[in-house]
Design goal:
Layout (H helix, E strand, L loop, with lengths): L9 H19 L12 H18 L1 H11 L1 H7 L19 H13 L4
Helix pairs in contact: 1-2, 3-5
Amino acid sequence: MSQSLAKQCNEVKERYDTCFLKWYSEKYLRGAANADSNECSALFKEYSACLHGALKDRGIDKLLEDAREDNKENDATFMGRKKCKRGYSHSQPCLLTFQTHRIITRIWIGTGRR
């Protein structure tokens, strides 16, 4: 498995990756589970919180927020979805914008993960 963008998140990322790959290959691909029943969600939340802190420490969180804001209209148009609104609930998830996806992909590739 690859390392996390933030060294302090490596351990939780490895636990999440292991859990997710096992769930995906042994349950999801075999039809024994659906995307809403991912048993690794607690680990993902833990890793996400760790990574968010690291992104904030490096000032990358502001870049992501700016990219989301700058491309909200385009993403809503081209992806045929409603615009994201701050304070969305879990029943109305916010769309990951194309520009944000590009930034995350660049960060991900920069960590050696492909």
